[in-house]
């Protein structure tokens, strides 16, 4: 949510939520769904004419097109972490 809000959305969104350690499984799933819904909303409303617009990013200048790739890679990274966790716990 932070990456899409900060670098792709026309309006920055205050990102805050409950501590996941205090939530049960269904509540965590609901928080995750809210996050994905927000990213999908930003993606759907994004004006593709701005894909090559350059932005300052802490890792160096990037285009908004590169930010979409980075967000996708970041989600893949965390999904892989989750799969390892589930396998280690025989889930």
Q: What sequence of helices (H) and strands (E) makes up the elements? A: HHEEH
Percent range of helical residues: 55-70%
Q: Structural class, judged by helices and strands?
A: mainly alpha
What oligomeric state is this? Answer: single chain
Mean pLDDT equals: 90
Beta-strand content estimate: under 5%
Rg (C-alpha, Å): 15 Å
Number of H/I helices = 3
Q: What is the rounded distance between the termini?
A: 27 Å
How many domains, as an integer? 1
User: How are strands sequenced across the largest beta sheet?
Assistant: 1-2
Q: Report the biggest beta sheet as strand number plus sense, adding barrel if it closes.
A: 2 strands, antiparallel
Task: List how many beta strands DSSP finds.
Answer: 2
Globally, the shape reads globular
Structure explained in plain terms:
- Helix content is 57%, strand content 4%.
- By secondary structure, the protein is mainly α.
- It has one domain.
- The chain has a two-stranded antiparallel sheet with strand order 1-2.
């Amino acid at each position: 949510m932070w990456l899409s809000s900060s670098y792709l959305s026309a309006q920055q969104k205050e990102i805050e939520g409950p501590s996941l350690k205090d939530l049960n499984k269904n509540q965590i799933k609901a928080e995750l769904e809210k996050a994905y819904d927000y990213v999908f909303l930003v993606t759907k409303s994004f004006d593709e004419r701005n894909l090559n617009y350059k932005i300052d990013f802490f890792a160096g200048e990037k285009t908004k097109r590169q930010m979409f790739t980075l967000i996708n890679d970041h989600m893949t990274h965390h999904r892989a972490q989750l799969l390892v966790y589930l396998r280690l716990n025989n889930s």
